[in-house]
Amino acid sequence: MLQATEKQKSILLKAVIKLAKSSQMFRNVKNVSQFIENYFCNVALSDISQSSPEKLFGLVQAHWKFALEREHKKALVHIYNPSYKEDCWYCEHTVIEIINDDMPFLVDSITLELNRLGLTPHLVLHPVINVLRSKYGKMEGIAPVFNLSHRAVSESFMHLQISRQADQKLVEISKAIHKVIKDVRFAVEDWVGMRTTMSSIIEELERKSKGTVTEDAAEAQDFLRWVNDEHFTFLGYREYDFIGKGKNFSAITSKKTGLGILRTAKYLPKPSLNKQPPWAGTVGRASTSQGDLLVVTKTDVISSVHRNAHMDSIGIKRYNKDGKVIGQRTFFGLFTSGAYCRSPHDIPLLRLKLKKIFQRSGFASGSHDGKALLNILETYPLDELFQTSDDHLYETALGILRLKRCQRVALFLRCDDFERFVSCLVYVPKDSFTTALRKKFQEVLEVAFAGEQRAYYTQIGDQALARLHIIVKTTPGNIPRYNKAKIEANLINVTRSWGDSLLDNLIDTHGKEKGILLYQRYSQAFMPAYEDKFNGTHAVNDIQNIEQTLETGELSMSMYRPVEAKSDQVYFKVYHPSQMIPLSDVLPILEDTGLKVLNEIPYVVRPNIDGDKLVVIHDFGLETRNGSKVNLVAVRKKFQEAFSRIWSGEVESDGFNALVLFGGLGWREVMVLRACCKYLRQAGIAFSQEYMEQTLANNPHMARQIVDLFKARFDPKIKGKSKVLLRRLETGLARVQSADEDRILRRYINLVMSMLRTNFYQTSNTAAKPYLSFKLDSQKIDELPLPRPFREIFVYSPRVEGVHLRFGMVARGGLRWSDRREDFRTEVLGLVKAQQVKNTVIVPVGSKGGFALKKAPDMSDRTAFQAEGIECYKLFISGMLDLTDNLKGNKVIPPKNTVRKDGDDPYLVVAADKGTATFSDIANSVSIDYGFWLGDAFASGGSDGYDHKKMGITARGGWESVKRHFREMGLNTQKEDFDVIGVGDMSGDVFGNGMLLSPHICLIGAFNHMHIFVDPKPDATKGIIERKRLFNLPRSSWTDYNDSLISKGGGIFDRSAKSIDLSPEIQKRFDISKDSVTPNELIRALLTAKTDLLWFGGIGTYLKETGESHLDVGDRANDSIRINANQLNTKVVGEGANLGVTQLARIEAALSGVRLYADSIDNSAGVDCSDHEVNIKILIDQVMAKGGLTQKQRNSLLAKMTTEVGLQVLVDNYSQTQAINTILYQGMGIFDNQVRLMRSLEKGGRLNREVEFLPDDETLVDRGASRTGLTGPEIAVLMSYAKIWVNEELLASDLPDDVALQDDLIAYFPKPLRKPYKKEIIKHRLNREIVATQATNSVINRAGGTFINQLMESTGMPTSDVVRAYIITRQCLGMRAMWAEIDALDNKVPAAVQTQMRLDTNQLTEWVTLWFLRNGRRPLDIASHVDEFADGFNALYGCLGKCLPKHYLQDIVNRAEPYVAAGVPKNLAARVSGLVNMFSGCDIIRLASTRKILVADASRLYFAIGSRFHLGTLRAASDRLEAQSHWQKLAVAALIEEIYSHQLALASQVIDATGIRKKSFDTDQAISTWIEKNQISVERTDQLIVELLATEINDFAMIAVASRQLRTLAETLVAR
Description:
The chain is an alpha+beta fold. The longest helix has 29 residues, at 1526-1554. The model is unreliable at 268-290 (pLDDT under 50).
């Protein structure tokens, strides 16, 4: 094997030699082969076998080239990174080339220096070459080995390769190597001189022995001879002179005494000799004392030559003639390895020391103890024997001897005289000694002496004890005071096995029995890494947490701080069952708490139990992010509980959790601040959640005080001092420098002060509720987007957030499952605006709620997604009910543990909405669980309620709008075909039911979120049959449609398709020129298609105003298909679904001629039906509570009334659309009144035109100038606000309590309830609200939105009086019957004719109402006035044909003619046309009553007087006057009213003047008699009227003069 290796090496070198001989450089060099062979002579093949001949040649060539010139005794060092370009060879390592005179220690010293620099040589070549050089150092050749020339110089060629270094590092390496070579040269060159000096000193000592004991002097001389006899490597020598004493002592270097490495004074400091330090007298004791001739010790300096060890120093004292120590001669170097192998008995000086120690012991040499002591001294560390004193050695040796009898851990210390180090001898049972234990000893000793380990030596032999010798380097003067016994105890403690420590601690903690049981379970459970870091005490604490984790299956925690940790650092252990926690899960949680993770160490623990269970301990080293100190005692429990709840998902992980550490808050207190932030974000605050988190973290004291303010206001157990806290907060705010942070903190404070209730202190099964809700007074919240609700409830939890907005004490509206997590309040606010308008037809005002899921499963798992939605829905409802008062009979029961900052508030009603259509039973189950007084009336539409989809009520209500639009256009949707584009599918409530409401629907296109349905030429008959089939399926989509029934070219297309190929039929029907379109393009084509009806029955907003952006709309899902309102080509828009069109888009479309109202009008039937259900249930549940009905009877009764309830609801839809169209019909005629109403509502703070998109003043001027009145959508809003205003005014009055309105209250309920439960109806809990709502809708739906405001301005009367007067008028005139007859003419006569007839009735209604306001008795009592006037009006209706003058009768015929021609029955046409003569009805009836004559006689006389003086003509002329302004209109109205008063006055005078008191009399005779008596005055009046009639009466002044004359006539007569 060896021969083979040599052969391979030979072959390789021959190849290198061959390359060398062929090279230019070596061509003329003799002995080149010898040089190369010598160069690689001592190299192992394995070191060069991987290198090619070319590479080895490059190496040799480079070194040869470097060696061509070298001055005598000059070291050459070349360090470089070879490259082909620069060096003609390449090496992957950094190369070090050295050429120096051959000398000892060179290779060792350089290699050690490289190691000190952290570098490891990969290759070391160090041939010695005999070089021939000129006197100038130029190489002249290589001397043959067999014939050395006297000129040949042996040079060391060193080649080393180290890991490749950066160029800047090469300079540092070069300097270090140069220094080492220099040291080696000095030591080698002066070696002989140093030995000679030593010999001289020995000879001198032989001659002198002053100040020493003869034996000691002889021993010292023998020691020096021994040292000089190859037992000491001399590296340096220097002499010192001692000057002064005590503090003034110093050691001065003698000039020119330095040898070896001490040639220069700078090389080596004078350890403990340069100047006597103030911290000890050790210098004097060690160097200047007279007792010892020699001082043998270790220096602080590590040798750079030969060995990497602290150099030894041998000092020989110099004395003066008086025997005083005056200096010292010191040799520096290293004891040879041979010296360390010698027995101390063979070393002079030491042998004497050992002899003295043994003699002192008194042991016999052959005794057991004597032998043992000799062994101890023989094996004692050599360096220690030199340096330790006799006394110390004696005590230590005996101490070691005693260990033979009692084997244990023992410590023996020796502190260096100069406090440079402490020598520690540790004895430990051999079986226990390990590297790990040695490191633990090291740590204990380093801590004890505030130093660091400099070196250690171990001795493990046949003895039972192992010896560890550790040198701890210390700082002179800074060694702490120490207790050897305590240090030894610490060593014993770490020596004891980890298991022993664990057992002891378990027994101490748990008692013997349980402790042993736990030990058996955990003795082998922990990893070595854990045992290395933690002791038994720590383990016991961990075991307790592990046991808890195993028992519960949930994680446990432990926050702690090691002694050595800083105050801003903590450690946190997490105990997790079964497996390791992914760090990506836990690190964000810790960082959110304000901590930085410095490190994490996992420890797997496997207890000895069945099932092979394990627990993983994650030990996190943490530091506060902002450097804040952590009060561990104060926050430990709060932090651990917070972390536990964050991990379990009960608490969100975000920056607010930093307040646990920095603010000392508990997790629930933090939840309050988090919930406030979530609400403020929903309320549109400009700051991000992250910024608000940081603000509170920056101001933890303010965060704490905000929580304290919350507690002071709402903690039932304390009497809060809110004012004091507010003052403190204000003071704190003054110190907040950031304007943004100040604003955020003020918003927090404002929000807390706006809270009225919270469930924070409520409990569930004695535990705090896992969610938080608070009720707010929205009017007090700063910067809240308009419109501001009356109240709102915000519900927060990690799973869901929701808000419920309401505009009054009694309010209702649906709860929406929102997908707009970031701004669901904005969505709900938009909905509640529409709801507020929509609810004007029902008792409650508008409310709306919305909730958004925060941890929803993926929608691919529909079941899980729905289940989470239901749970969050229930939680949201619970949060609202927590803050709602309950009722027991008439007694209000507030929620427990709830401080109320508002009054009683028991009314909370909800309904279904988007995403919650089938949730009514769920909501009612929560209501019933809470024992809420409304029971299953809480949410309408449940199992025992009215199912909106089955009833189709929402769609049917919307269809009333559709029918009216088309009726206005002259089309009967129930008998004539019409085209429809729809949004939705047949599985939906509104779309599905809507598309079944007429057999003449031609559905040409529709779409939902998945498909597009297109039928270019639909068959209406086939279509409705197929749609009905789809609707009746449990679940359907457009793909279930029988495509064979679709007309040619049509089809059903998937919205996920990349493109859709279009048939010619589709292209033609929808005017599309492209052959292929994207699904979105096709949908936009449908929306812009020319059609009769666009029916919205699905979710989404598809029409916007031209100036609106998609962002303004807030429905990102439909941005790609939404169109502008000016792109519409439909005639009618039906909004069966909410928010299909923006309000601005409605207005733009209406101005373009599209017929539409608003979603609040079209789809109000759903909420109307729900309100009927709730109010009916409140009624019959009262009956049931008293035993009047069983649950089964109650539910059966509810079902029985379904049809009637539906019809009652549709009446409201019918009436509202009728009212809007009546207003539209009047156009600019009432524009001024509408403007005045808007301004009045706005002035009263009831309307914000900007929020409701009503025209501003500038737009109103433009509309007036262009004769463009308000559009239908605008009228819908204004009319609704008028209703809200009137309803509030009525509820604030006593009108709802008027007994005369009980019939209306009873009529509100279905017929089966009216008689049996009349008493209960009258005592209904919402009787006042029902009456007020009924009255409000009656007056505004019939008389118009401006009616009440107009009369209030005219009379100055309050709203309630105007409504009273209206009700009196309605009943007296019997208007309901006439209105019913007119309504019955739908689709029989043109809609405009019906509208005009209604306006005729309205004119009379307004006039009579005004009469009652002017002339009714105060207070205006309904019943008494109806009793007084109703019969009179009936009589007047009956006698008009006989009582009116003939030309009056002819006027009626003329007026009725257009109505009759349009198809109105003659009788109805005549009655409506004759209403103009009923304007004087009240005057006539009162005249008859006061003069005690028949109504017929009074009317005959009254009308005769009017005819005689042409008063009707004057009034008609007044009515025809063109009044431009509001004031002109008032003047005209006053003039007409005045003429009526003249007519009454004159009729009264006729009766009074003629003394008529008969049941019947001759009217003409009475008037003639009266004229004769007043001939002059009458003639004057006649003359004026004749003059007027002779010309066109077109001037206000003309009529005013006539009126004045008539008044003069009446007053003159009165004077008589």
